[in-house]
Design goal:
The protein has 6 helices and 2 strands, in the order ααααααββ. The chain is of the alpha+beta class. The longest helix has 25 residues. It is globular and about 50 Å long.
């Protein structure tokens, strides 16, 4: 048993039972974005959160413990993603990454946006020309220190 096997069991149960991530998130008590990342092996659950996920997906006590282990983060199987949706994010970073970096540095100074002190919100935005995907990423600014 390992974390990847637990992730695969969760996905299998999700498909078989027709479960929605937003419904899982409500039972876990976190956002759908964070909860989905947890279930896909990228976050660490508390014992209470692991128990809630375990109940939903039929996980054993041992499998629930794997949800509480700090994961190796980074879920892409290749350096350049091949999945079309994920590739578009890669393309966004390639095209706009230097612009984002420049504008953050101009506004905040030399530093980074945290992916630890971070939140994300993904919502459908109705539009007469075709619904849009609205993604908001919010991370604490962490300035580089001098020493």
């Amino acid at each position: 048993m390992n974390r990847l096997e637990v992730t695969e069991k969760i996905i299998t149960a999700k498909v078989a039972k027709g479960i929605q991530w937003a419904d899982v998130a409500k039972k876990v008590g976190q956002s759908k974005e964070w909860t989905t990342a947890l279930c896909l092996g990228q976050m660490t659950a508390t014992a209470e959160q692991a128990k809630a996920v375990g109940k939903i997906f039929g996980l054993t006590t041992e499998e629930q413990k794997w949800l509480q282990v700090v994961p190796y983060k980074g879920s892409l199987p290749t350096a350049v993603p091949t999945d079309p949706l994920i590739y578009r994010w890669y393309e966004i970073v390639n095209v706009y990454g230097t612009t984002i970096k420049e504008l953050i540095h101009e506004e905040f100074g030399d530093g980074i946006m945290s992916a630890i002190d971070f939140s994300m919100d993904i919502v459908r935005q109705p539009d007469p020309k075709g619904d849009r995907v609205n993604v908001v990423l919010s991370g604490k600014f962490l300035p580089y220190k001098t020493y």
